[in-house]
Sequence to fold (158 residues):
Amino acid sequence: MFRIGIGKDLHRLVPGRPLLLGGVIVPSDRGELGHSDGDALAHAVTDALLGAAALGDIGEFFPPSDPAWKDADSLILLKTAFEKVREAGWRLVNLDCVVICESPRLLPYRGTIRASLAKVLGADPEAVFVKGKTSEGLGPLGEGLAVEALAVCLLERG
Ligand code: MG
Fold:
């Protein structure tokens, strides 16, 4: 049995915060504003996995209103959520992601980001892919005011 999940997240970009994507700090003059560490890619992946297993979403598991998650390491949130997914009997087949970020270009960091996500998920880096895109200068993403991440995963059980 297979199940597909989709996840999406967006965070504002502001000076004085690190740009964290999949647990990797990407050198940038701006980073994500967020109650947690703001790792938009980790959040999208978490929602894709929880959604595929129909277990809930990141906001239910880790409410922003809960001070426990202030400045939380999003890889720990991802790992915790994925443990629930595994406990429900699911295995990750593959994960594919898109990060929309006007700058910097993410290609030089892709291998590191894939390896970081794969490590948290106990997956082969071959089963995890990440693509960087720009918004062609259009809209808030194109103006560099925010970063958006999309994730799709396939889970298998039985
Ligand atoms: Mg988020």
The chain has a mean pLDDT of 96. The pocket of magnesium ion is lined by residues 9, 11, 34, 40, 43 (CB under 6 Å). DSSP finds five helices and seven strands in the chain.
